[in-house]
Amino acid sequence: MMALVAAIQPNPHPMNIIDLRQATVRQLEPLLLEEASHWREELHWDYRSALELIKRFLDAHALSGSVALRNDMAVGYAFYVLEDYKGLIGGLYVTPSQEQGVIGKRLLEELLYNMRALPQMHRIEAQLMPFGGPVDETLRQQGFRLHTRKFMLLKLSQQAERAPSIDSGLRLDRWNDRYFEPCAKLIYLAYANHIDGEINDQYRSRHGALKFLKNIIHLPGCGQFLPTASFVLRHPGSDELAAAVLTSEVAAGVGHTTQLCVQPGFQGHGLGRALMQTSSDALRGMHYKELSLTVTADNRPAVQLYERLGFATVKSFTAGVWPR
């Protein structure tokens, strides 16, 4: 009887959900450090530069989202950013020492209620690493279409095939900023009627693809861009691109493929494989130890290519899209 009474006693430290703009960096810092340790240990990713950006926005009270507090201590947080007519859920983390499923559900529901109240909101995208607990059921209940994404890792120390020669008459070049516009066009063409265009609508226009490119090259969310391990295949005498691979550094000795795309008319001829091997060889030459990437599970040709190259899935996560 005593055990039953104890079980139904109210929690002595009830949870409060507050606006993220009311929280301080000091309140969230232990939570952010804990989140960074998951990125480092599970994904081999140094997430500190992204967290420093989050801290700057917190200091300026300019980051939209919610914080779960228990006894004035942050136990979970979620945030979003606005981009024209859509919102991007930028992160969700709940400490595993608390009820992740319950707290994560409350945070997501609060976040989505506030986002949907904005008159210009017509689309919400989310790509959430599962460090905050399960999210699929909550997103599904909220009307999201869900897709599984894979986080894959390659040990660069393993024996690798030599990058095949490219006999297509195309010219191989390292990345140069003059390729911004041609690469945006390439991404737009490569992802026409593609599952990834459903997940990220920036792929659906040249303007959106250019914004995506500038984000992965200039901002720290996908690491520090590595032009020395990023390559394009272009038509001789032209800046028109047939394929491209873009690479960043996400931790000391760890690279990350942020983009691999091939123009539809050139797909199926080994260009993607050749570019991945060329990029991997460049990283080995700079003494990098690992290379990671993310891919949509339903994109079977891409998944099979990466598996043939030696990549292994280390984490699966959810991408969700809500259209009004």
Task: Show the helix and strand layout.
Layout: H1 2-7, E1 15-19, H2 25-43, H3 48-59, E2 64-70, E3 73-83, E4 86-94, H4 100-116, E5 123-128, H5 136-141, E6 145-155, E7 171-174, H6 180-190, H7 195-199, H8 206-218, E8 224-225, E9 231-234, E10 241-251, E11 254-262, H9 271-285, E12 290-296, H10 300-308, E13 312-323
Parallel strand pairs: 4-5, 11-12
Antiparallel strand pairs: 1-2, 2-3, 3-4, 5-13, 6-12, 6-13, 7-9, 8-10, 9-10, 10-11
Helix pairs in contact: 2-3, 6-8
Architecture overview:
The structure is a single chain. Helices cover 35% and strands 30% of the residues. By secondary structure, the chain is α+β, with helices and mostly antiparallel strands. Strands 1, 2, 3, 4, 5, 6, 7, 8, 9, 10, 11, 12 and 13 form a 13-stranded mixed β-sheet that branches. Helix 2 packs antiparallel against helix 3 and helix 6 crosses helix 8 (206-218). It is globular, with a radius of gyration of 21 Å. The termini are far apart.
Features:
324 residues, alpha+beta, Aminopeptidase, 2 domains, 13-stranded mixed β-sheet, 10 helices, 13 strands, 35% helix, globular, disordered N terminus
- The assigned structural class equals alpha+beta
The number of domains: 2
**Assigned CATH superfamily of the largest domain:** Gcn5-related N-acetyltransferase (GNAT)
Helix content: 25-40%
Number of strands: 13
Sheet with the most strands, sense and barrel status: 13 strands, mixed
Q: What name does CATH use for the topology of the largest domain?
A: Aminopeptidase
Mean pLDDT: 91
- Strand content of the residues, in percent? 25-35%
C-alpha Rg, in Å? Answer: 21 Å
Put simply, the count of helices is: 10
- Which stretches are low in confidence, meaning pLDDT under 50 for 5 or more residues running? 1-10
Return the CATH class of the largest domain.
Answer: Alpha Beta
Shape: globular
Query: What is the end-to-end distance?
Result: 50 Å
Strand and helix order: HEHHEEEHEHEEHHHEEEEHEHE
- What is the architecture of the largest domain at the second tier of CATH? 3-Layer(aba) Sandwich
